[in-house]
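Hello, quick one for you while I still have it in my head. My current little project is about how a certain protein chain folds up. You're getting the sequence in one-letter code plus the fold written as tokens. Would you mind checking whether the tokens look sensible for this chain? Here's the protein in full, and shout if anything looks odd to you:
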Amino acid sequence: MEKLDLQEAAHFVNTNIVRFHQSKLKSLERINLRILLRKKNPYLFRAKNITVAGDLIKGILEAFLSSSEEKLFGDFLEELSIFVASKTCDGRKSAVTGIDMEFEEESIYYLVSVKSGPNWGNSAQHKKQENDFDTAVRVLKQSRSRLNVQPVLGICYGKSKPKFVKNYQRVVGQSFWHLISGNRDLYTDIIVPLGHKAKKHNESFTKEKSKVINSFTAQFLTDFCIDGEIDWERLVRFNSGNM
């Protein structure tokens, strides 16, 4: 395994993290109030006794953005892990369904599916991942029958020892970054460049988010409030009425 050039890795992070922040801004541009109100549970916000329209809009928007951010940043971490593997062990992005990257090291051929965190997916998605690993191994062995293939579920953060689950190995946090780089400290090394210009990007995002909250609040007051009070029945009818 080749040694990873940390400056090269930092350059990759600094260059590509910009796309993560740009994608966050685009997610704000694409959303509108009515789509947002249909995506979230009005009963939950009523149960929390939210009475200020601005608080309701902020809560709904931040819940939407949180789930969106997790997906966007997960995509970035997948790209970073593939970049690292490409530099250390000639890894490459996989074209196989359910597999993100492939590489060979010490006579073991790794098929890796990358997840950003440990709490990913439901039972059906876990089962699909097992099936994807089975299919990928079977297809690979048809052409290279003696190949020692190891499916790996690589999870970018979390504190858990590597273990075998069903038909694959689950490798988490420090162990995952060590697997693809040979560097025990890579999981901490990459945190530094992630913060490069983060303050500037987050200030821009916060400014745009404030505009959206103010605009949506004004619209919400017109469409779903009576004399400044939230009309919960009208909101629930809009969100769930279908008869």
